[in-house]
Amino acid sequence: MARGIQVGDKAPDFTLPSQSGAPVRLYHRLGERVVVLYFYPKDETRGCTAQACAFRDSHEVFTDAGAEVIGVSSDSVGKHAAFAARHNLPFTLLSDEKGRVRKEYGVPAVLGIVPGRVTYVIDRQGTVRHVFNSLTNTGQHVNEALDVVRGIQTEDPA
Description:
InterPro entries: AhpC/TSA, Peroxiredoxin_AhpC-typ, Peroxiredoxin_BCP/PrxQ, Thioredoxin-like_sf, Thioredoxin_domain
Enzyme class: oxidoreductase
CATH topology: Glutaredoxin
Pfam family, one: AhpC-TSA
EC number: 1.11.1.24
Family: Belongs to the peroxiredoxin family. BCP/PrxQ subfamily.
Mean pLDDT: 92
């Protein structure tokens, strides 16, 4: 899928292991909650740590707004577990070691080598409502996602 997933597309379903090793299926998380799915390059790098901590610091706000945050990178389950523990991350991190899901979503690589940083907001019906792609503006991922989640909540207070 060269063009990547866009607003209005159905989010591709997938199952990946979380930092605890338990399998997580996207479509099992939808329905009750909006999912903020963010792809990031690598655990423990400056930008990725800043982004994860920004999502952590806003976790309660996302939860109150009816959303669940899920981070995805190609790091192993063990690396995710250490990253989540070190930074007290209260949300799920998924291990996409082969990059299959990243590819399915069409997340671009910067300069062809650095995995991109893209955030998707997926509504309860599995429709992508927002896509934000920026490798450097980590805080904007959190702010934009929260704005969209709040907008979805006001239109569908289920």
